Amino acid sequence: MVLPAFLVSLLLCSACQSSDSPTTTQAPAAAEDTPPPPPTPVQALVANPKVGDVYVIRFQPQGTTDTRYFFYHLFRVTPDSAYLHPARKPAPDAAADLTQPDFQASANTIGYSRGELAGLLQPQAGDVLKTQLVQVRREQ
Length: 140
Known about the structure:
Mean pLDDT is about 85; it is low at about 1-15. This protein is of the alpha+beta class. It has a domain at about 40-135. The protein has helices at about 5-15, 40-45, 115-120; strands at about 55-60, 70-75, 80-85, 110-115, 130-135. It has a 5-stranded antiparallel β-sheet.
């Protein structure tokens, strides 16, 4: 018996929709609505800069495996920027006494946008000195 073509397609279509055919379920989408983790204390301080903050930048001098720290004294904050005076010299310890002349602010000024400040928290690709903001020293 030969079935007309429209009946064959109707039968195939109904077979696809029958409850006997296996159903595929889609896996739930990746958790796109998952909130980001809460900011670390350093991230929170960088997001809310205050005059008098001292940013502690860890770096590795080129050609060595030593770790050194450089201090940037925040002296001016605007709604979209922050201005810092770098210290005169690096220190071997992040807890260096900032009253020492070498670690006090120099007359040089470096300006950063708020986005650039946040970027200091992450190591940057291609940075041979491996600089990274690791601490904010803030007077209580």
